[in-house]
Hints:
Blueprint: E1 3-4, E2 32-37, E3 44-48, E4 57-62, E5 68-77, E6 86-93, E7 99-108, E8 112-119, E9 122-136, E10 142-148, E11 155-158, E12 166-170, E13 173-178, E14 182-183, E15 185-191, E16 197-201, E17 206-213, E18 220-227, E19 232-233, E20 243-244, E21 247-256, E22 263-269, E23 276-282, E24 292-293, E25 299-302, E26 328-330, E27 333-336, E28 339-340, E29 344-346, E30 349-350, E31 360-362, E32 369-373, E33 381-387, E34 397-404, E35 407-415, E36 420-425, E37 431-437, H1 440-448, E38 458-466, E39 473-478, E40 482-489, E41 496-502, E42 504-509, E43 519-523, E44 527-533, E45 540-546, E46 554-559, E47 564-565, E48 569-570
Amino acid sequence: xxxxxxxxxxxxxxxxxxxxxxxxxxxxxxxxxxxxxxxxxxxxxxxxxxxxxxxxxxxxxxxxxxxxxxxxxxxxxxxxxxxxxxxxxxxxxxxxxxxxxxxxxxxxxxxxxxxxxxxxxxxxxxxxxxxxxxxxxxxxxxxxxxxxxxxxxxxxxxxxxxxxxxxxxxxxxxxxxxxxxxxxxxxxxxxxxxxxxxxxxxxxxxxxxxxxxxxxxxxxxxxxxxxxxxxxxxxxxxxxxxxxxxxxxxxxxxxxxxxxxxxxxxxxxxxxxxxxxxxxxxxxxxxxxxxxxxxxxxxxxxxxxxxxxxxxxxxxxxxxxxxxxxxxxxxxxxxxxxxxxxxxxxxxxxxxxxxxxxxxxxxxxxxxxxxxxxxxxxxxxxxxxxxxxxxxxxxxxxxxxxxxxxxxxxxxxxxxxxxxxxxxxxxxxxxxxxxxxxxxxxxxxxxxxxxxxxxxxxxxxxxxxxxxxxxxxxxxxxxxxxxxxxxxxxxxxxxxxxxxxxxxxxxxxxxxxxxxxxxxxxxxxxxxxxxxxxxxxxxxxxxxxxxxxxxxxxxxxxxxxxxxxxxxxxxx
Length: 572
């Protein structure tokens, strides 16, 4: 049996547990060479004695096939030994083959700074850094760089074995990938057994798969379900005292890991999307995974529905800048990978929005357009006009991806006419990415390659963000007297709805509360039956036993978020 504790704090992501710090030379674990762009692997090209400081620095992309602990970095420079700390940056890829968010960054002194030899008449120095292990995940592209923290470290380059490009930064701001050779550097570390982790796949509600790695090979594993954001303490048994990052956790299944510590479990989740989470408990070591949460998937719709933008932009007039990769920010929104339209790009033709005003333009074979809010809050709804801005070319499909916390949670391949309005509502998402394609196969091939790139021109215009003011609809099933069910649709996604009874049709004014002054289309003994919360699609259900005295009466639904009422239904 599992007992809920009183603690309600959210457990931090396991990545946050890595605190990187230098280690003394006598305890340093220098590790094996796991990535070698050193002078022995390629042809020495040149060395810049300047431009490797925080205000202008570089990084290279690396990727490993296994879970790997990074314990050291060697870089080569033509700058003789100097005092001062070094700045280390490890960034995630953004999915477009360019640096994205920081994974880790820190300052530390060098561990060793020594003359390595003369290359084409240039003395090169090897600068070594040893530090506590940093876990790098398999099949994940990272960007890694080392620069002087307040002083010029310099940087040597080779012509092989990489792709001949590196990432250039101005301070912390990524500028571009530059075709100037590869950075001369080396990574040291070791392959490690996978950490104990749980991942969920599948759309909620519906069939899902829980994939567990890093368990004791051949050992027993408990799959647990509970409320996201809480904690549960196990009171007895072999793992008594273990804390699970789920509220009111309950056992789903006990599983046996294979010889590599992996296990999968398939199940159906009918509801609770966004609130239900899962975790795993290794019954041999009593290790606990972090919580893997479920997501409520937003609904795709066509046609304009958002009337008010709640202070966020309705793009019809102007944009702030016009070149890639400059940022596009306006009205509380952030747009990436886009030009502004109504500029001559091809053969003097202008790429404008559907109404001839400026629009966001994404060229063929360019990255998908990313849209987020500057405050990083989730969207209630977002909609936009989509087209390509010129008459003689037209995409056939849109590819729209919805993200939450950097994780893709929904995919939509849309066949729609030019300059139609398309939108997403409900669920939980804080970013969308939009691309355009001529065939579904083209989109699927790009997706399989792991790149998110559009392969036809696309224009985005009239971006509107806000809440859709819903008009709820009510249907009854069952017979009175007896068990009956009220099915509600069209309510505010995740909003509260109230089912209200009256003896007959008429008019009654709500006297107080959040909808004070709203006119209900019923009268006579008006009273609240029940309240519930709609799901991410605006649907809800209320069931119960209806007494004989209610037969012939009326029911209506009140959407508390918008104070709108549904149709009136007679109880029969």
